[in-house]
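Two proteins, back to back. First:
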Amino acid sequence: MRGLKDKVALVTGGAHPTGIGGAAAKRLVEEGVKVVITDLADDEGTAYAKELGAVYVHHDVSKEADWQAAIAKAVQTYGGLHILVNNAGVGTFADVEEETLEGYNKVIAINQTGVWLGMKFAVPEMRKAGGGSIVNISSIFGAVGGFGASVAYHSAKGAVRLMSKNAALRYAKENIRVNSVHPGFIDTPMIALMKDPTNPAMAQTMGAILSMTPMGRLGKPEEIGSLITFLASSDASYCTGAEFYADGGWTAM
């Protein structure tokens, strides 16, 4: 893809090779990008960064100081910042009545506040660099009601969708593009519980997911990584404030 060689990217939640962040980091490295991976899984992140020839930083995305330190590391190591992939996220299955205030606040802090903080601290460095691309990972559950559960996750991912549009308008004249990616059900560690054949309830949920996905399969992390990389590249130079769905046709129904 065009315009990526020697750019600098920060990818949150990128410690696991089989996750969306890990797949995005790998694809960006393959395109010649200098990558900083951040996560809380230090052993996995350090090893994966070494494998990719990237840099790893311990990073709680809900904390301002951690954001400042992670972005400073990228700038000090590589001389700037051009790409931010706000990927780190968590979720719960609890519905409106089952969710606790503690659980709700945790999901919002990581999935929603963390995205805002990332943009807040990345934009000044992108401005210095003459522009950049921010890719915020939302979800199909940031646009549809799903199964009526996971209220905190839906709330946060819906906010990411609109935050991305708001920021895109704010920075459109500064050559800083902001887009959101909305994966469907992707075969990552986050949904490993649903693949447990010894848990009948989860097996039933997985069966429902596959039956409701027109393509009839889970997505691959690499498929989302490729979309993220496209949006980071100059091939997507006229894309900002847009929503990109990679869901096997889920939201087309």
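And the second protein:
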Amino acid sequence: MRKTMILFIAVFISWQAAPAQDDMKYRRSSIYSMMVKHDKQKFAEDIGKVFLEMPVPDKYNDHDLSVKIVSVSDKKLEDNAGITEFLDRNMIASRLVGKWFNRNVLTGQCDMQLVKDRGLYNASEFDKELASRSQRGTALLEDAGEDLIGNTFVLVNDIRYIDRSKGSATIGLILKIVGAGLQAMQDAQAMKSSGNNRYNRYTPQRPSIKEGFDGLAEMAESYKGFKVKIHSYLYRLVWDDETASRFYKDAYTDRDNGAKRDNFERQRGSYRLEYVGEQESSGSKISFMGIKEEEPLLMVRKACQRALDENVANLQKNFDVFKVKVPLSQTEPIKASIGRKEGMTDNSKYEVLQPVEDDKGHTTYKRVGTIVPEKGKIWDNRFMAAEEKAQGCDLGATTFRKVSGGTFYPGMLIREIR
């Protein structure tokens, strides 16, 4: 009981010290998000540009590697088998492990700083326990492996433009007809004003109304109603006892060590990713309210961001290992920074989790209650929800109603129940 209360006090203090809800400290899974770009496809370059601007899903730690986009001109990366072969061939799993330990490829030197930071460990206590090889020190490594390194994901996103040229061409034709009509009216009015004087010849203005509408028409034909489908493939880093033991014994070193450097290089192929599942976005129509015609790339960004967020939300619903835990920011009323972007609806339900530390120092999570979102008080945190004036876009957090449980505290974690 005393250990549980200490955990609560630590969480509560970190919450009080945080300047904003998004700065609350809690353990998150980590993710490397990358894109498959089809070079021969229309708008491939535009889609690639906006993907680089898109942050990793904000309920995960950013574990990106240097390569974010893989360009292909054939069908080698169009299914799970092809993508798995690509990830294995490029030894992505070993690269993710190397990043966890800030491994220097030239010397083999590693450190535990990222593990300490993301695990919210007291740095001096962590180092002391590991140095003493105590029971608690072993538990800390197990804890880090299970709750941190073992929850590292790779999300490969195959993004494709959906050709809606028929509909956009119709819009473009209408704009051209309207532009031509207005131009004719302007020319007729100008001719009348000139009095048909042969010495006062009328010269149409440049740029003309027609040219302006023709420009909008071309843009409309290209971008209006821009639509994409994203097929996302999800993988998880395998970090079991055997893998962890081999790494710490054969490859981990806190100084320049050529032998351990070479061990890691030889063993790169032994690190693995396991396939979790996949999800394809619906390609549903996106509202471009609030986006100006002269901002076509913003249309591309919104379409891609919404489709990717849809996939991430559905992957969380369908695969328990990918579910996120989000802290309660307050309890009177109950609120948390989660909403429509994470797929929340009026029918969603969440469990409230209490962190519990056992005698060995290992942290587990115990359900202490359940909550549901209040109708009309779900935060719409989707990309550009405010620009389209979506309901709930200004809430800043979702308000919940308790269904069961006792006393809740800020900093307790919630997780969606399927």
